[in-house]
Amino acid sequence: MATKKNDSPRIAAFQHARACSPQASRGRAFELKRFDPASKPFSLGDKATDKTAAAALATDLDKLQDVFYADRRYKLLVVLQGTDTAGKDGTIRGVFGQTSALGVHTVAWKAPSIDELAHDYLWRIHQQVPRLGEFVIFNRSHYEDVLVPVVKGWIDRKQTEQRFAQINDFERMLVEAGTVVLKFLLHISKEEQRLRLQERLDDPTKHWKFAAGDLEERKSWDAYQAAYSAAVAATGTPWAPWTIVPSDSKTHRNLMIARVVKDTLERLKLRYPPGDPALSNIRVP
């Protein structure tokens, strides 16, 4: 059912922020399967209205990013995590496409290189976190290191829980150093993924998006859903909560994420630096 503007659900209903350690996360009240990926809880009524609202929010984010860049008191890290075809690229275009290239940086994470594998798994991540005044958007992230290795059986439960604790500590350190961390899990259904993969196959202009391993990875759908659920349960912390975004609808996905980002930035009470009084009487000849 569409949600009316004055009856919008609380975003807290789609967030998990109660984990503080791997030990505390065992048996936590979080199950990814209770979120319907086809739902549109933040819809304003119909697709056209939602598109208009999402576009307006994108414009608002451009204005807020301008102040954020000038303010230089904070850093923003946006983590976009999700299965193949979940819409990470589309989110970047739809939510952040209006922002200035100055002060906004996107990192698309791939499998680690030989050099990166020679270091700890967070080494390459730390090099790409935002500087003061900067937005950094992660297309995939350090969470790949508690998803793929788990599904493939490359690390055991003890090692997985150790990584959960390390990630929590890493993100807490970032937050204590002035970084605002927003983590979004783009939640789509298995059927929606099938449709999107088929669309890539049917359209020659989208063949570049299709990888031979996509179909093989799809066979592990249930294992990945379980891994995502465990990761969110263990790493949704008060300092870096997860937001579960029903994403079968691309428009709803953009609308919901843009709203969360805007609300977060507005709570920071951003401001431009004070003007220099000495400049007020200068006239350019």
Q: What would you say this structure looks like, in words?
A:
Mean pLDDT is 92; it is low at 1-7. This protein starts with 14 loop residues before the first strand and ends in an 18-residue tail after the last helix. The chain has helices at residues 22-25, 47-71, 88-96, 114-117, 123-126, 148-152, 157-176, 190-202, 213-218, 221-235, 250-267, and strands at residues 15-16, 75-82, 104-108, 135-139, 179-187, 242-246. The chain is 43% helix and 12% strand. Helix 2 (47-71) runs parallel beside helix 11 and helix 3 crosses helix 11. The radius of gyration is 20 Å and the shape is globular. The chain is of the alpha/beta class.
Find the count of extended strands (DSSP E, 2+ residues).
6
Rg, rounded, reads 20 Å
Helix content: 40-55%
User: How far is it from the N-terminal to the C-terminal residue, by CA?
Assistant: 61 Å
Low-confidence stretches: 1-7
Beta percentage is 5-15%
Number of helices: 11
Shape: globular
Topology as a string of helices (H) and strands (E):
EHHEHEHHEHHEHHHEH
